[in-house]
From TrEMBL:
<dbReference type="Pfam" id="PF18029">
    <property type="entry name" value="Glyoxalase_6"/>
</dbReference>
<feature type="domain" description="VOC">
    <location>
        <begin position="125"/>
        <end position="236"/>
    </location>
</feature>
<dbReference type="InterPro" id="IPR029068">
    <property type="entry name" value="Glyas_Bleomycin-R_OHBP_Dase"/>
</dbReference>
<dbReference type="InterPro" id="IPR037523">
    <property type="entry name" value="VOC_core"/>
</dbReference>
<protein>
    <recommendedName>
        <fullName>VOC domain-containing protein</fullName>
    </recommendedName>
</protein>
<dbReference type="InterPro" id="IPR041581">
    <property type="entry name" value="Glyoxalase_6"/>
</dbReference>
Length: 237
């Protein structure tokens, strides 16, 4: 029994508008799967989609999860930044300092993301969406490795990273201290390989917690990982 990462999903005040932004920046096509929001095909070896689900939650702090986009050259990095700005992004200050070689931006709803400089060996071969960088503990990295069946590709000094056996986007956790819950953020949508309830019980045994609001829409079950980040277990797809 295991789960597949079906989507990395944004809380979105305007799902169509936000999907249009990310489709334009990343060059992604819309998926036609049943989904309670808008979904884009990521085109990444990790096999997930980008989801945009309607939410009225207000963003209260820096996101715990953000994308790191890769670059093949300085010109490529500059082109990605310029394209994102054209689609409605803004520069963001998260304390990176004036000498940072990566560029920090925020999408039209304030979700931060980074355009990484060329030559980053850790993200080599991971695709345009090189990493989903998460604020989180070593424990939560271990949890998601077991939950998804993605092996650890980094585990040092309380920092962890996992990657699909097929390659593609890495998911990384930076260790303590844990940033406050931003309210509006990105979340995981999981698709069980078989029975939804049996998979929920497996995830609970790994350290997930069932939330008081048991259902996350579209017959999904709403859980939280060991760091308190909400995620959904969908019906089988």
């Amino acid at each position: 029994m295991s789960s597949r990462l079906f989507a990395i999903s944004f809380d979105a005040h305007q799902p169509e508008r936000l999907a249009h932004f990310w489709s334009g920046v990343l060059g992604l096509e819309r998926a036609d799967d049943p989904y309670d929001g808008v979904a884009l095909l990521s085109g990444n070896d990790g096999g997930y989609r980008l989801g945009f689900r309607p939410s009225q939650t207000q963003k209260a702090a820096q996101n715990r999860l953000h994308f790191d986009l890769t670059s093949s050259s300085l010109e490529d990095q500059q082109e990605t930044v310029a394209r994102a700005l054209d689609f409605g992004a803004q520069h963001a200050d998260v304390g990176q300092g004036p000498d940072a070689s990566h560029v920090v931006l925020a999408d039209p709803e304030g979700n931060e993301f980074c355009v990484i400089e060329p030559g980053n060996n850790f993200l080599a071969g991971c695709g345009f969406i090189g990493a989903l960088a998460c604020d989180g503990s070593q424990t939560v990295g271990y949890f998601w490795s077991e939950a998804l069946g993605w092996p650890l590709v980094w585990d040092q000094d309380e920092e962890t990273a996992i990657q699909s056996p097929n390659g593609g986007t890495k998911i990384t956790w930076g260790g303590p201290p844990l940033m406050p819950d931003p309210g509006k953020d990105l979340h995981f949508d999981l698709a069980p390989d078989d029975d939804q309830q049996a998979e929920v019980e497996r995830l609970l045994s790994l350290g997930a917690k069932r939330l008081d609001s048991a259902h996350g829409g579209d017959s999904a079950v709403l859980l939280a990982d060991p760091d308190g980040n909400e995620f959904r277990v969908l019906t089988r797809r």
